[in-house]
């Protein structure tokens, strides 16, 4: 989201990925803006802690995964 020069070669070099993968990043950046991306990362942190037992007394791993996927998609 914050690259100044967004051509594929520069993006691949900056992100240290193969140039043929940049198109997938471009598609994702169009679907998920910066704010939504930051929110999803926050969800991942929260559910990682819940999966380790913090702030979770009874939800199973499967239930946590379903909740996480729902939050990411909606």
Question: How would you explain this protein's 3D organization?
Answer:
This protein is an all-alpha fold and 74 residues long. The chain is built from 4 helices and no strands. The protein has helices spanning 8-15, 22-31, 34-51, 61-73. The model has no long low-confidence stretch (mean pLDDT 92).
Summarize the structure.
The protein has 74 residues and is mainly alpha-helical.
* Helix vs. strand class: mainly alpha
End-to-end separation in angstroms reads 21 Å
Q: Total number of β-strand segments?
A: 0
The gross shape turns out to be: elongated
Radius of gyration: 16 Å
Q: Percent of residues in beta strands?
A: under 5%
List SSEs in N-to-C order.
HHHH
Largest sheet: none
What is the helix fraction of residues, given as a range?
A: 55-70%
Low-pLDDT stretches are none
* Overall mean pLDDT: 92
- Tally of individual helices: 4
């Amino acid at each position: 989201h914050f690259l100044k020069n967004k051509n594929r070669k520069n993006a691949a070099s900056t992100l240290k990925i193969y140039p043929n993968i940049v198109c997938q990043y471009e598609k994702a950046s169009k679907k998920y803006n910066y704010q939504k991306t930051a929110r999803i990362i926050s969800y991942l942190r929260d559910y990682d802690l819940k999966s380790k037992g913090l702030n979770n007394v009874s939800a199973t791993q499967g239930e946590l995964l379903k909740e996480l996927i729902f939050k990411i998609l909606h």
